Amino acid sequence: MQEKIIILDFGSQTTQLIGRRVRELNTYCEIVPYNKFPFDDPSVKGVILSGSPFSVYDERAFKVDLSKIQGKLPIMSICYGAQYIAYTNGGQVEPAKTREYGRAKLAKLNNKNQLLEGVNVGDQVWMSHGDTITKVPDFFEIIASTDEVECAAYQLENQKVWGVQFHPEVFHTTCGTQILSNFVVGICGCKQDWSPASFIETTVSELKAELGNDRVILGLSGGVDSSVAAVLLHRAIGKNLTCIFVDHGLLRKNEFSDVMRDYEGLGLNVIGVDASDQFFSALEGVSEPEQKRKIIGSGFIDVFDQEAQKITDAKWLAQGTIYPDRIESLSITGTIIKSHHNVGGLPEKMNLKLCEPLKLLFKDEVRRVGTELGMPKHLISRHPFPGPGLGVRILGDVTREKVKTLQEADYIFIQGLKDNGLYDQVWQAGTILLPVQSVGVMGDERTYEQAVALRAVSSTDGMTADWCHLPYEFLGKVSNDIINKVKGVNRVTYDISSKPPATIEWE
């Protein structure tokens, strides 16, 4: 049985980062809602409580009874989690005199404490809170302070319960990996035996047991996630997997033919479907982003339903859903960030059961699994591409003419990244067609044509991202090439927004 750490999610935007850091320690973990702890799972070795957008004294605050966990499993609580344990044990949590965001230095600490072994005075930590613990209960021992925050970390006396006010999961906390390792490995005793190879072995075995001799349909998108899911399923059930690759007319230039060739080379049984007419018809005149996503998602359901009827004994629909897909579709606070066509709702209409072999993996883990499966590098290293395709990179309504324009501009940008050795340095890149026209001069003539925005970001999992500082010479050449070679475009801009507050995609 695979040992694991459970992360209780109280709605923090960095909860997924906690999971990533634990996985980087070669330890399996699962993120579950704060009120869904798996009490009957004997493989759980420890618990981490996340931060939250709420204050512990807020009426809307997420509350949990830890009495069934405390004393049985080690607990580490972060930010809101630390405040919650202090508050519910009789401590005081109050609004800080000034909201504390950004870098801080540890000024005092007890590095003989098991959680802080290897941590030093002066180490940088990252604060992100509006409240602070102003008084701890008598049986709490403060084990770290900064100049501004007296209770930066604590332990309950004679109990394996710790709280840290800062965020060890964030890169800016230089001792964060050490602290998490102290908890996961030193305190919880995890063996650090989770790896891509062990994931493949376990998942293939589970798929064989769950699917048996059933026939499975997988919707391929051409991206890394669905491709890795296909190869993983192929290893488990072989010929019982039928893949469907839908061309909704919103793919990149030449993508349909190129990807079909790749899939055939992998030995997959793939059916290619040109459904572009259907999608363009449904999208006609629609400009609202969520509506476009839902129309494209609904279109996929219809196409799959038509193909599923041809495979009369199909019982399962497989998808390349990964963790960020699920968390962005519906956060624990109930706020929709953006809908994904491959998250939720499909089996009910199609009368198929859902199989998501990658649903607990982050993007970089999916890539490592693909490499372990022996997949070609150019498939594994492909940038993420939204399921709705260029439909969400065309701001406003979608037409064939706009798609053609965007495909040409995007091809110049992406090929330029590859030709200049920049593609693998970028997490995700793409071109956005803007719903504005601008004045330009070409030759002796005044023009009034489209503007495009180039977007290139660096990231590790897509949950946070920063814009890439691409060379000016490169950007200048790409801009020149697009304006000179793509009819209807006379202006190129470069997006320098980070996530948060912006998202990677514009819609």
Q: Per the principal axes of the C-alpha atoms, what is the gross shape?
A: globular
| Total helical segments | 14
Mind telling me the C-alpha Rg? 25 Å
Specify the helix fraction band: 25-40%
Give the termini distance in whole angstroms: 41 Å
Assembly category:
single chain
Mean pLDDT figure:
89
Cross-sheet strand order for the largest sheet: 2-1-3-4-9-8-7-5-6
Major sheet attributes? 9 strands, mixed
Report the count of strand segments.
18
Low-confidence stretches: 333-341
Which secondary-structure class do the elements indicate?
alpha/beta
Structural notes for this entry:
With 507 residues, this protein is α/β, with parallel strands linked by helices. It is built from 14 helices and 18 strands. It has helices spanning 15-24, 80-88, 176-187, 196-211, 224-237, 255-265, 276-283, 289-310, 323-329, 346-350, 363-372, 377-380, 400-419, 472-485; strands at 4-9, 29-33, 44-49, 75-78, 92-109, 124-135, 140-146, 153-156, 161-164, 215-220, 241-247, 270-274, 314-318, 353-355, 428-442, 445-458, 466-467, 489-494. It has a nine-stranded mixed β-sheet with strand order 2-1-3-4-9-8-7-5-6, with helices on both faces. A five-stranded parallel β-sheet has the order 12-11-10-13-14, with helices on both faces. The relative contact order is 0.09.
Question: Key terms for this structure?
Answer:
nine-stranded mixed beta sheet; globular; five-stranded parallel beta sheet; alpha/beta; 507 residues; 18 strands; single chain
Can you summarize this structure?
The protein is α/β, with parallel strands linked by helices and 507 residues long. The chain contains 14 helices and 18 strands. Strands 2-1-3-4-9-8-7-5-6 form a 9-stranded mixed sheet, with helices on both faces. A 5-stranded parallel sheet has the order 12-11-10-13-14, sandwiched between helices. Strands 15, 16, 17 and 18 form a 4-stranded mixed sheet that branches.
